[in-house]
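User: Quick sanity check before I run a bigger batch. Here is a single chain. Can you write out its predicted 3D structure?
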Amino acid sequence: MAGLSFEPRSFPRILITAPLMYRHRLGVLLPTAVVLDLPYAVLYFALAPDPPAISPLPTNAEIGDFLRVMGPWLVIRLLITSILFAAVIRMVGEVFLGVKSSWSENTAASISRMASLTVLTVVFWVGVTMGSALFVLPGLFLVVSWSASLGVLIIEGAGPMAAFRRSWELTSGRRLIVFVTLVPLTFMVVVTNILILLVLGPLGNYLAGDLGVFLASELAWVVTQPLIGVLLGLLYIDLRVRRDQLNANMLTREMVATSFDR
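Assistant: Done. Predicted structure follows.
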């Protein structure tokens, strides 16, 4: 895929571009996801306790028990996902510049911002969870309003709180478009996850028991999560083009300034 032009894109065009970019950069995306997921997968399978049982309509006590036991693992998973998204967003920037992507360099750049990514991830999900508890809509609003925060942090080099403020500004006036762009691709990712688990879960269970089922779930994460990162990168670039008149020179300066080996 040659370098992309810096021009505003409609949400159908972004939705079409995301899977195409995912396919063309699969050789970069999958190694990034595997390298980030493997240590977590090994530690989780070896050390994580069995999740407490939860009824279809869980009580507060059941939810509390689940979070107490599984909360630390959920936080680690969310942080790894943020690191992956940040690395993928840098890759999207390289695609626009027509630069050959390096999964190792982008992953290193993301890991070098671990402290900021940790703060951003915790604040993001605490805010979204609290907002979702208030009739869901406030949580969705924050997801949309903060959707560019990872791009701001990893490309522009902003701190976590500044990234939230900047994302709020970038999405202003475009939140409905961002929402209707995120929904169908997120639905596609969820469906793909389910299909992978339906096909490979029973097969893995037959061949290797619990380990096989676990490997199927990890494979689903590795395959599907980079696609969300690609979409976030495309949305971020589009918002920057509209708000800042982003061009190749500007993006190059920013990415060089925030590279790991600068």
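The two ends are 26 Å apart (CA to CA).

User: Great, the batch can go ahead then.
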